[in-house]
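User: I'm new to structure prediction. If I give you an amino acid sequence, what do you actually give back? Let's try with this one:
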Amino acid sequence: MPDADPGAVADVLGGLADQVFVCTSSAAAIADGLHLAGPAGVVQLFAPPAPGTPVPLDLGAVFFREVTIQHTYSAGPLDTRDALAVLASGAIDPAAVISHRVPLDAVDEAFRLARSGEATKVVVEP
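Assistant: Good question. You get back a string of structure tokens that encode the predicted 3D arrangement of the chain. For your 126 residues, that looks like this:
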């Protein structure tokens, strides 16, 4: 969500979010995610920035809204089963997080997009 206006996103959502999932390593997206979390909200980080990359955080806002920051690097077998069950139920549209689709013969471009922070999620198709 780089270059997003958290206020405009909150207007579209009807307020701040209880849960925010940041699926990119972009420092700007992480900062935006923290601004979108409402009181007692949870921001889940799925992709870390490169080591040494500063991420600007408004810790005052996070502190006073009691926002929890969680992170994950991988999922265990139970988490994977739970995620697949949610996807199979139709409760979440996985297409909503896919920003790029590339053919298998362009896999180098898929990795470039993923590393650059330009993409939220890249799917490599046969």
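You can read the tokens as a compact description of the fold. Here is one thing that stands out. The chain has two domains: 1-73, 75-126.
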